[in-house]
Design brief:
There is one protein chain. By secondary structure, the protein is of the alpha+beta class. The termini are far apart. It has two helices and eight strands, in the order αββαββββββ. It has two domains: 33 residues; 110 residues, Immunoglobulin-like. The strands form two sheets. Strands 2, 5, 6, 7 and 8 form a five-stranded antiparallel beta sheet that branches. Strands 1-4-3 form a three-stranded antiparallel beta sheet, with no helix packed on it. The protein is elongated, with a radius of gyration of 21 Å. A hairpin with a 3-residue loop joins β5 and β6. It is 26% helix and 32% strand.
Length: 151
């Protein structure tokens, strides 16, 4: 066999292996990614998230993205929630005292977590002095908000 035949055989075999592995890798990623959604409920607390920042007055959607949900797969500042994540972390708009307020009750495993509210999947709302949440770690775009879930 000459050198070019050997190289062609290696490339062909590699392509076959890669083609067989891609579906398995994608399935593993989906399974791993949603494992955090299937934690024991007896080790979690129902937390009511409330977002009434001025940035959310006239928007279509607000999500909760944080260390407890892998920041909703954020890439370059844009979140890409799955259907299940949207069900669990998309907030609901309500009128409270004449103002639009976004709320969502979320079951959070025990621990300390940083998070931010995300408007229209790309505008991240950072912690501010008038926030009702604790200040979390510094992050791009400003400090995170922080919550604690406990028994």
């Amino acid at each position: 066999m000459d050198k070019s035949t050997i190289i062609a055989s290696i490339i062909g075999a590699s392509a076959t292996i890669i083609a067989a592995l891609i579906p398995l890798l994608l399935k593993k990623r989906e399974t791993h990614h949603e494992e955090y959604l299937n934690f024991p409920h007896e080790k979690a607390q129902l937390i009511r998230f409330t977002c009434d920042y001025a940035e959310t007055t006239h928007v279509n959607e607000v999500h909760i993205a944080g260390s407890f949900n892998h920041w909703l797969q954020a890439k370059k500042g844009l979140i890409k929630p799955t259907k299940l994540e949207t069900e669990r972390f998309a907030m609901i708009k309500q009128k409270q005292q004449g103002r639009n307020v976004w709320v969502k009750d979320v079951l959070i495993p025990y621990g300390h977590y940083d998070f931010k509210f995300v408007v229209n999947k790309n505008q991240w709302i950072a912690w501010s002095e008038n926030s009702t949440y604790s200040k979390g770690n510094d992050a791009p775009g400003g400090p995170n908000l922080r919550i604690e879930s406990h028994a």
